[in-house]
Amino acid sequence: MAFIPTVDQEKCVGCEECVDVCPVEVYEMVDGKSSPVNAEECLGCESCIEVCEQDAITVEET
């Protein structure tokens, strides 16, 4: 089972909370916004969703 994290760049304010909370370093800051640069590492724990106050992150299960 794989997970696909996405970040809505329109909603993201660049707070870096998801970068800090992710246990497997899926996210990095790119041009001031969060980006799932290591999406294949996603565990599906959804801790990033919980800390994102902008509701900019979704994680889909494949």
Describe this structure in words.
This protein is of the alpha+beta class and 62 residues long. The chain has one domain (3-61): Alpha-Beta Plaits (2-Layer Sandwich), CATH 3.30.70.20. The chain is 16% helix and 26% strand. It has two helices and four strands; from the N terminus they run E-H-E-E-H-E. It has helices spanning 17-21, 47-51, and strands at residues 3-7, 28-30, 33-35, 57-61. The strands form two sheets. Strands 1-4 form a two-stranded antiparallel sheet. It is globular. The protein starts with a strand and ends with a strand.
Task: Give the topology.
Layout: E1 3-7, H1 17-21, E2 28-30, E3 33-35, H2 47-51, E4 57-61
Antiparallel strand pairs: 1-4, 2-3
Q: C-alpha Rg, in Å?
A: 10 Å
Structural class: alpha+beta
Level of helix content? 10-25%
Query: What percentage of the residues does DSSP assign to strands (E)?
Result: 25-35%
Look up the CATH topology. Alpha-Beta Plaits
Indicate the CATH class: Alpha Beta
Helix and strand run: EHEEHE
Structural domains: how many: 1
Low-confidence blocks of residues:
none
Tally of DSSP helical segments = 2
Please provide the count of β strands: 4
Overall mean confidence score, pLDDT: 98
Largest sheet: 2 strands, antiparallel
